[in-house]
Amino acid sequence: MIMALQGSEIRPERNVGSEMFSECLAEEMLERQTDELESFLVTTSIFPILIPKASDALLGIDSSYEIRQELARQNLAIEVSAPDEATAYVYHSLLRQLTRTRLHEREQDSLEELGTRAGDHLRELGHWEEALDIFSDVDAYLPTADFLVVVSETMAADKQWKKLASIVDLLPKSVITSVPELAIRRAQAAVEERDLVYALDEVMGQKEREDFARHMP
Questions:
Q1: Cα torsion for 123, 127, 128, 131, to the nearest 10°?
Q2: pLDDT at residue 187, as a whole number
Q3: What's the number of CA atoms in the CB half-sphere (13 Å) around residue 3?
Q4: Would you tell me how many other CB atoms lie within 10 Å of the CB of residue 217?
Q5: 118-157 tens-digit pLDDT
Q6: CB neighbour list of residue 140: distance below 8 Å, 6 or more residues apart
Q7: Cα(106)–Cα(207) distance, integer angstroms
Q8: Most exposed: 12, 118, 176, 188, by fewest CB within 10 Å?
Q9: Residue 169, Cβ neighbours under 10 Å: how many?
Q10: Rg (CA), the chain
Q11: Rounded to an integer, what distance in angstroms lies between the CA atom of residue 186 and that of residue 167?
């Protein structure tokens, strides 16, 4: 199958004609699927990693594992390892690019709601980094901020300050400021990185709040 031959990425040295040819073949393979399978592929492209339990919960079905096996048989999905999961898959990059384009076209008005639900399902299964990827991808900023308040405590305890700062900085500044616990935790990360100016700015932005002290870690 073309997906297996291409691998997970288009090689930089391939010319534009070859890339277009590969994309056309990927689209043809998608068109060959039944309506049910095509719908499954498009909706679950919201996930950066495909966990059967999360797919079942998002779609309200109990057959994701069997569907994934069929997709793997067709070389449309690749089995990968994931912590605490017996089975996990990812789509080939060309296929995911195509299905995500269709998803954005079909779910323009409900993409944030779909992404929030998908992220919540991954979070409940312990895949919080992938959940954050989804929240950020669909601009679900408040769920992202609320979730980061929870995981930032663990990251701080593990002294993962650079990682914490890089993830928090994906959010708009206004969102960070609106969640005091997150702003203060970001200030902590700045202190650890010796960026005292940034840390002071974060703290000064929070000190006018009447409940400032209550939010201190």
A1: -70
A2: 87
A3: 22
A4: 10
A5: 999 998 898 888 988 898 888 888 888 888 888 888 888 8
A6: 112, 115, 116, 119, 134
A7: 44
A8: 12
A9: 12
A10: 20
A11: 10
Q: Give tens-digit pLDDT for 60-81.
A: 999 999 999 888 888 888 888 8
AA identity, residue 169: D
> What is the residue type of 213?
A
Q: Three-state secondary structure along 52-116?
A: HHHHHHHHCCCCHHHHHHHHHHCCCEEEEEECCEEEEEEECHHHHHHHHHHHHHHCCCCHHHHHH
- Per DSSP, 11 falls in state -
| Cα distance from N-terminal residue to C-terminal residue, the chain | 53
Structural contact between residues 217 and 184, judged by C-beta atoms closer than 8 angstroms: yes
Distance CA 186, CA 200 (A): 11
Contact (Cβ atoms closer than 8 angstroms) between residue 105 and residue 113: no
Residue carrying the six token digits 């779910």: 107
Per-residue tokens: 18: 């070859």
